[in-house]
Amino acid sequence: MPARPVRTLAIALLAGLLGALLPATAAHAGTVQGGRLDWGIKSSFQSYATGPVAKGGFTLKGGAATVGGSLFRFHSATGSYDPATGAFEASYAGGVTFQGHQKPDGAHELDMTVSRPTVRIGGGGGTLYVDVSSKAKDTGTVSNRSQVPFATLGVGGIDMKGAAGPLTLTNIPVTLTAQGAQAFAGYYPAGAQLDPLSLSADVRTAPAAESRPPADPQPGTTPQASQAPGAFADAAVDWGVRRTFREYVTGSIGQGGWTLSEGAQDGGALFRFPQGKGAYDGRKGTLDAAFAGTVRFTGVHLDLTLGSMAVKVENGKGVLSADVTTAGTTKNAVPLVEFDAAALKTEGALVTLAEAPAVLTEGGSQAFNSLYKAGTGMDPVSLAVALDATAKLPVLPDLGSATSPSATPAASASSADPAPGADASGASGASSTTGLYAALAAAVLLLAGTALLLGKRKRRTAVADGSATATPAPEPDAQSDPTPELNAVPESGSDSAPAPGSGSGDAPK
């Protein structure tokens, strides 16, 4: 075959290949729905707030959780992403409040809440915005600021274009801005290095979003008019048991975990027990409901199952009960915690109680084999009751479909961290596009090589496989976290607890 026709054929084949593949990568701007952001804010500040000087602690809000050595996990990303330009914006739910230096009147000199982190990336730069409520350390003046441009993000070396599916960024350098320094109550100057952050976000392209049919009501629910007097259509109770207990179970001492069954759901910092049935009297403010779902905790010298959850509310007080199984023995309807239900409220056809403070009962103490004394603060209780089929229960925290973007922050949040704009390792948003271009490059080389060999009329030889695929950036090793331990005081402030993931040899406190 003459060389020119062979080259012409190769070019034609390549053009056909490009025409077939490139349209498949023509990305549409999409919405961000679901995902998580892991950030420790600043480890030294955590240590100060929870240490022997400030003698304080932190509380989690809005479904935020702890993860890894000293990270807070924010959830339920919402926003937008344009793969053509790489512009990305996502806001995450949840918050954390630090308190310390308690005064005789119960107030705290250190009192700061950071919530609703929002990441905006575009034009080669990035900014982290947060809601901040803080008390200035010098004057005690309280300020509340919404979506402060808190820090710059070192994303200059990351190509944000062309991502398909979940977008993941890890260990992004974070530098405090002048506005952030002011919102941080003056504890750190502008330019201070904060802890790096990692995030994931589920991206749904416009065509996929448009093709989704509207959600139908759950089968079997009927309008309130057909309900028996006092009955309701649906209900759920959310409870995380206790943060430090979960961390103990999954830590180096417990070496275990938990499994959910019979409809129970995992919301990151809490478990949801759904399909509530029972009766509610709005005039009296009473509730009597039973819920589906079981959670089983297992580990070294641990096998505890909680199921058949039930809630009773009366006179502004609530009790959460469960069937408790330990060592093969089950005790039914054990009252585990008591909680403040005074804030139970009705809006339309939805009754809610959000994050009501809860304390352990004597029966609960026995259920946990006396690891905690009666009166110990446990995770708060949240309730939602749909009076009829028109009411929708609050959604669970949405952590997204991607695996955890990072279990630990970078080696050190200090001046040795990469400067803003430096290449942040672990960016994997455009890996699918990289793989495509690698495959196209291999195809070009293969076709060109074949044309050359045929053009010179040489004997056909074996051709090595020229395919190429993108290799995702490796996830950080959670077992080698060099971050300082978080000596955290539990939410209740009644006892001490090992740091999240610290590997302390102590029993859970």
Give the structure's gist in a few sentences.
The chain has 509 residues and is an alpha+beta fold. The protein contains 7 helices and 24 strands. Helices cover 15% and strands 39% of the residues.
- In DSSP terms (H or I, runs of 4 or more residues), the helix count works out at 7
Biggest sheet details: 13 strands, antiparallel
Mean pLDDT, as a whole number?
76
Termini separation: 81 Å
The counted number of beta strands is: 24
Structural class: alpha+beta
Q: What form results from the Cα inertia axes?
A: globular
Uncertain segments are: 1-27, 208-227, 404-509
Strand content: 35-45%
**Helical percent range?**
10-25%
Rg, Cα atoms, Å? 27 Å
Give the SSE map:
Elements: H1 3-21, E1 30-39, H2 43-50, E2 57-61, E3 65-67, E4 71-82, E5 87-93, E6 95-102, E7 108-122, E8 125-135, E9 142-153, E10 167-176, H3 178-183, E11 193-205, H4 206-211, E12 234-239, H5 243-250, E13 257-261, E14 265-266, E15 271-273, E16 277-281, E17 286-290, E18 294-299, E19 302-314, E20 317-326, E21 329-340, E22 345-347, E23 350-360, H6 362-367, E24 377-386, H7 431-455
Antiparallel strand pairs: 1-4, 1-11, 2-6, 3-4, 4-5, 5-7, 6-7, 7-8, 8-9, 9-10, 10-11, 12-15, 12-24, 13-18, 14-15, 16-17, 17-19, 18-19, 19-20, 20-21, 21-23, 22-23, 23-24
Can you describe what's shown?
The chain starts with a helix and ends in a 54-residue tail after the last helix. The protein has 7 helices and 24 strands. 15% of the residues lie in helices and 39% in strands. Mean pLDDT is 76; it is low at 1-27, 208-227 and 404-509. α1 packs antiparallel against α7. Strands 12, 13, 14, 15, 16, 17, 18, 19, 20, 21, 22, 23 and 24 form a 13-stranded antiparallel beta sheet that branches. It has helices spanning 3-21, 43-50, 178-183, 206-211, 243-250, 362-367, 431-455; strands spanning 30-39, 57-61, 65-67, 71-82, 87-93, 95-102, 108-122, 125-135, 142-153, 167-176, 193-205, 234-239, 257-261, 265-266, 271-273, 277-281, 286-290, 294-299, 302-314, 317-326, 329-340, 345-347, 350-360, 377-386. The chain has 509 residues and is α+β, with helices and mostly antiparallel strands. The radius of gyration is 27 Å and the shape is globular.
